[in-house]
């Protein structure tokens, strides 16, 4: 897009005779090059230090072993150690299960809610505020609150409710088979509002003529939803699905606070494993190696996803 | 720590939402799937009313309910909360839990730290996004394209690759040999390197008609003048969105401050709360949770339009 | 325009390139302390010392500052920079990475093996020889800081053995005699049932998270008759009958008696707080927890009970642990000598000087801290008896409540923690304990067999 319009500095330079445009630092300063650079400095410095460099360093570190006194290159040994960890498979499975479950609940529910809320006339604003309320709560607070709801004894909130109908008490987070679903419910509660608001914003942009045309063709309300609303939302839905996939794949806070990865590592996610490698065992090489693998997997997933959806939309 | 990747395409709804009305606004003359015609049918009206009612009730119970319970638990004694989780204040309101949160949990310190972190994150986030966006979209030196691509590229790399390396960088800044651990800089600066903010702002700047800049230059305004007196005032809406997202993001962040601020005296509430959980009386702890929630919720209720618009345009990214 | 692009792009990338270079050449050059034969102990030297109490504990902080002042008065050439740095699993490596590890800091017994292995701690053998009292340390605990070649890497400053902590008030409520604590595991089970029945508290408990589950399981295995590792640390032995028995014991309490509460995801703080708050009748923990429970967590001193860890007929003793003062691997010989002088002053002066011993005890009393709380001496018996004689009249804890423990602490053998990869071992055992407590059908043989393989692989990998 730089090529489209001439930048102002270039435009001014172009006006001068070509012969005088010797590349000299003074001329560069006079043309405002220094001022421009000053504007770029905050971005360049913060990105160099806190984004570009750490990405490169992460790649380098995955091939190194360091005790911070001596650093040595170890080739792919870190990757081998990651793959040799029996916990890796557990963590991959837990994370995949978590993600699939989170998407299975967290993807359709906001769509339906947004469509329903969009049909409300007087209460739409109130409903959006309600739906967004959990998103406003800091995740840590929400996790801690739900942790008290999930108390495994009779005093727990959910167990009290179960008690009313003569059930329970259930162990909730203490149940190896239920720990991930329990965390998924909390995580979905905490985040579904965002998707609802985004879908609502998209729904508002659908041109009314489309509905009118469908109506004239005699399409019922459900058919209008199916043939007008959903196709019109397809773009944002596809992006949101990918974002949800990538986001939930990096789940950390919820299992870290609620269960510490237990019971029996049944809620140990990949990020929790990375955290343990790095910040509990001090094994930064292994941690970055796993990070790189995870990043590769996510990039691959995104690439395939984008490729597939593009093919699908063009076919 | 920086919340994961995003797609540049999500900028599109941002624009769409700007053009259109926000969801909370008046919607009288709009139509949706169901037309005014449909609404004349009693059956449709009935079904819609019932569905709407159900959705509202469900939302009240699931979204407002837990917060209300938190308020109840924060103002009840621990024994009451444990014995009757759903009992409504059997022995009256116990505000002393809130005061106890301040004295025994040192909630005030953590709240102050949170505010400092949010303020710094906001300032540096805006500084980088506006100056960088201005450089990329308006000044456009030859290297702007390279920088833009380099910034864009970070969007596609999941934050997790650099988490450990970022930590080691912060612990010992290359070339400067400074350790930022246990300083607020360690939270402010990495947060400011947000590709999403830079791109959001630069796209907005790009949409400003270039004639305005030409006119200003003919009037003799330099790059700083144009930036300060022309671009920034014009960009207020997007700056509002970026501000909100940055501040909310900083308020919510957990893992990064946990790593960057091991000193208890510097930790924000999100890091301190899980740490003090088991050593704090349940009622007092609930009070601490409640206060942590009340502040953002109150701000949200006051500025709902701005919040929902920011969320509608870009919320998917900072979550 | 094209020309300028070519010139500008390298400029933009220059910074990043410079960083790569600096990182590749990075990694400092620590002085090799073993070379320092002649050390000038009078030359000016600055050391940083960790472990300064936080402002949350003003009494302890004041005490600490007083010590720093006295120390520098005695050693005018040494400047002491105190900091609050404490060992924490997740931040320790960062101290090294950032070059901010203090010259002297404390680490738990479990860490020292890995630190020696990774070369992240100074060899202090030569400088140790200079000090008289440091030659008189308890040989059992000195083993922990000595490597196979007899080199010394730290000074143990506090030690404890694991015991059975019990809440005396809950014992009374349950009709048990608090002066006659359980001495067999069958007694423990019966007492747990009684507490479960007649009080609101859970009878027995164990921690399960952040490696504590494995730590306690290891302790219990010692009491039931087996270590988890061969003495040389080459072979894992955690799949053994004793550990199986311990897990069966957990299973009976959890699933037959239901006397272990409902939450089985407890970390150290969760369990310790539950015990101090009277929500847990008994658990296995360091017997030195009196101050932690009473002073830090507000437990009634009269409620705190500690019994020796019950042993089965095959029991081999109780697990011991403690705190070691270590010196930064980048310290110069002069800094090591100064650091050792500080360690000696801070932790051992009371063993050599009656006045200091009494003054320190009095200061502790004035600050509301405990004198004479049960623990394991780090100095040898002779030195300890002398010290005990000096402060006997000042003891302010109800030692009569710990009679059984105190009378047997010397008899019960101290078994150290696994010497190689202890934390990995514990981490692998956490889920085993969690499994038995959360799944009634947990297959103990299978769980232990898998854990055994995991750890053996880790040990083989070196």
Automatic annotation (TrEMBL), chain A:
Tell me which Pfam families the record gives: BPD_transp_1
Keywords of the record, alphabetical order, are: Cell membrane, Membrane, Transmembrane, Transmembrane helix, Transport
How does the record say this protein sits in the membrane?
A: Multi-pass membrane protein
Which ranges does the record mark as transmembrane?
28-52, 97-117, 129-149, 178-201, 233-252, 287-308
* Source domain of life: Bacteria
User: Where can this protein be found?
Assistant: Cell membrane
The residue ranges of the ABC transmembrane type-1 domain are 92-305
Q: Which InterPro entries match?
A: ABC_transporter_permease, MetI-like, MetI-like_sf
Record's keyword annotation contains Cell inner membrane: no
Signal is among the record's keywords: no
- Family assignment from sequence similarity: Belongs to the binding-protein-dependent transport system permease family.
Question: Under what name is this protein listed?
Answer: Sugar ABC transporter permease
Originating organism:
Occultella gossypii
From TrEMBL, chain C:
One Pfam family, short name please? SBP_bac_1
In terms of PROSITE patterns, this protein maps to: PROKAR_LIPOPROTEIN
Signal sequence range: 1-23
From the UniProt entry, list the residue stretches annotated as the region Disordered: 26-57
InterPro entries, per database record: Bact_solute-bd_prot1, SBP
Alphabetically sorted, this entry's keywords are: Signal
Q: What is this protein called?
A: Extracellular solute-binding protein
């Amino acid at each position: 897009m730089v090529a489209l319009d001439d930048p102002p500095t270039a435009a001014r330079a172009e006006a001068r005779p070509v012969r005088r445009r010797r590349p000299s630092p003074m001329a560069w300063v006079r043309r405002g090059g220094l001022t421009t650079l000053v504007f770029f400095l905050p971005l360049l410095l913060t990105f160099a230090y806190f984004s570009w460099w750490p990405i490169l360093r992460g790649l380098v570190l995955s091939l190194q072993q360091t005790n911070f006194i001596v650093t040595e290159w170890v080739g792919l040994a870190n990757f081998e150690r990651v793959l040799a960890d029996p916990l890796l498979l557990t963590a991959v499975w837990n994370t995949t299960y978590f993600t699939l479950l989170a998407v299975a609940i967290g993807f359709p529910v906001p769509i339906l809610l947004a469509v329903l809320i969009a049909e409300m006339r007087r209460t739409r604003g109130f409903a959006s505020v309600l739906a967004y309320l959990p998103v406003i709560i800091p995740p840590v607070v929400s996790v801690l609150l739900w942790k008290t709801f999930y108390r495994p004894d009779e005093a727990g909130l959910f167990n009290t409710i179960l008690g009313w109908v003569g059930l329970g008490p259930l162990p909730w987070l203490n149940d190896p088979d239920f720990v991930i679903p329990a965390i998924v419910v909390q995580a979905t509660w905490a985040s579904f509002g965002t998707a609802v608001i985004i879908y609502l914003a998209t729904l508002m942009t659908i041109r009314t003529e489309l509905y009118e045309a469908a109506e004239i063709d005699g399409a019922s309300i459900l058919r209008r939803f199916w043939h007008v609303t959903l196709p019109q939302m397809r773009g944002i839905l596809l992006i949101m699905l990918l974002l949800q996939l990538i986001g939930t794949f990096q789940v950390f806070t919820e299992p870290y606070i609620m269960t510490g990865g237990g019971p029996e590592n049944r809620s140990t996610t990949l990020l929790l494993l990375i955290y343990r490698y790095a910040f509990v065992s001090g094994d930064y090489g292994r941690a970055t190696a796993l990070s790189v693998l995870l990043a590769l997997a996510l990039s691959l997933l995104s690439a395939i996803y984008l490729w597939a959806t593009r093919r699908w939309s063009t076919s | 720590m920086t919340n994961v990747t995003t797609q540049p395409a999500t900028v599109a709804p941002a624009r769409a939402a700007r053009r259109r009305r926000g969801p909370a606004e008046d919607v009288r003359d709009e139509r949706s799937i169901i037309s005014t015609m449909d609404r004349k049918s009693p059956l449709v009206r009935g079904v819609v009313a019932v569905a709407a009612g159900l959705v509202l009730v469900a939302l009240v119970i699931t979204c407002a309910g837990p917060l209300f319970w938190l308020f109840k638990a924060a103002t009840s004694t621990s024994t009451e909360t444990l014995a009757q989780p759903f009992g409504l204040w059997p022995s009256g309101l116990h505000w002393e839990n809130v005061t106890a949160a301040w004295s025994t949990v040192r909630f005030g310190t953590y709240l102050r730290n949170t505010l400092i972190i949010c303020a710094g994150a906001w300032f540096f986030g805006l500084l980088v996004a506006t100056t960088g966006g201005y450089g990329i979209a308006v000044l456009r030196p030859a290297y702007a394209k390279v920088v833009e691509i380099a910034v864009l590229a970070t969007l596609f790399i999941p934050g997790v690759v650099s988490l450990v390396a970022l930590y080691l960088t912060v612990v010992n800044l290359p070339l400067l040999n400074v350790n930022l651990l246990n300083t607020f800089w360690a939270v402010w600066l990495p947060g400011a390197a947000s590709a999403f903010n830079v791109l959001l702002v630069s796209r907005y700047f790009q949409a400003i008609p270039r004639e305005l800049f030409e006119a200003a230059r003919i009037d003799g305004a330099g790059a700083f003048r144009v930036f300060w007196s022309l671009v920034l005032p014009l960009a207020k809406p997007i700056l509002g969105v970026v501000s909100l997202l940055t501040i909310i993001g900083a308020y919510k962040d957990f893992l990064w401050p946990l790593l960057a601020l091991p000193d208890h005296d510097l930790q924000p509430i999100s890091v301190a709360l899980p740490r003090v959980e088991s050593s704090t009386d349940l009622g007092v702890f609930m009070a601490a949770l409640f206060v942590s929630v009340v502040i953002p919720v109150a701000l949200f209720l006051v500025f709902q339009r701005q919040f929902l618009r920011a969320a509608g345009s870009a919320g998917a990214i900072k979550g | 325009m094209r020309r300028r692009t070519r010139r500008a792009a390298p400029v933009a990338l220059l910074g990043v390139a410079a960083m790569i270079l600096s990182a590749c050449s990075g990694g400092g050059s620590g002085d090799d302390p073993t070379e320092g034969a002649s050390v000038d102990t009078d030359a000016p030297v600055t050391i940083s010392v960790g472990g300064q109490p936080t402002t949350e504990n003003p009494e302890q902080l004041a005490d600490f500052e007083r010590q720093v002042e006295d120390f520098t008065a005695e050693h005018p050439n040494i400047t002491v920079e105190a900091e609050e740095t404490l060992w924490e699993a997740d931040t320790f490596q960062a101290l090294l990475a950032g070059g901010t590890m203090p010259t002297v800091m404390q680490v738990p017994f479990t860490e020292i093996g890995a630190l020696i292995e990774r070369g992240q701690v100074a060899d202090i053998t030569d400088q140790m020889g200079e000090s008289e009292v440091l030659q008189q340390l308890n040989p059992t605990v000195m083993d922990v800081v000595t490597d196979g070649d007899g080199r010394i890497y730290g000074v143990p400053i506090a030690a404890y053995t694991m015991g059975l902590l019990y809440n005396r008030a809950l014992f009374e409520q349950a009709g048990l005699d608090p002066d006659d604590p359980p001495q067999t595991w069958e007694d423990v089970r019966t007492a747990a049932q009684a507490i479960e029945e007649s009080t609101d508290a859970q009878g027995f408990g164990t921690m399960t998270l952040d490696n504590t589950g494995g730590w306690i399981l290891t302790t219990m295995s010692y009491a039931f008759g087996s270590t988890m590792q061969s003495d040389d640390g080459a072979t894992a032995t955690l799949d053994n009958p004793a550990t199986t028995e311990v897990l069966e014991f957990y299973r009976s309490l959890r699933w037959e008696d239901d006397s272990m509460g409902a939450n089985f995801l407890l970390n150290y703080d969760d369990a310790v707080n539950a015990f101090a708050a009277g929500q847990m009748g008994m658990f296995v923990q360091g017997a030195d927890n009196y101050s932690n429970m009473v002073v830090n967590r507000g437990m009634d001193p009269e409620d705190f009970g500690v019994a020796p860890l019950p042993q089965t007929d095959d029991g081999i003793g109780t697990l011991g642990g403690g705190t070691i003062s270590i010196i930064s691997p980048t310290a110069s010989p002069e800094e090591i000598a100064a650091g050792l002088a500080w360690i000696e002053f801070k932790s051992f002066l009371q063993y050599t000087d009656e006045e200091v011993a009494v003054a320190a005890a009095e200061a502790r009393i004035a600050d509301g801290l405990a004198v004479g709380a049960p623990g394991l001496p780090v100095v040898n018996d002779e030195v300890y008896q002398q010290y005990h004689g000096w402060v006997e009249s000042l003891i302010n804890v109800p030692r009569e409540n710990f009679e059984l423990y105190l009378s047997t602490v010397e008899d019960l053998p101290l078994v150290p923690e696994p010497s190689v990869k202890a934390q990995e071992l514990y981490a692998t055992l956490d889920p085993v304990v969690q499994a038995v407590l959360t799944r009634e059908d947990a297959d103990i043989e299978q769980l232990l067999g898998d854990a055994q393989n995991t750890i053996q692989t880790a040990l083989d990998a070196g």
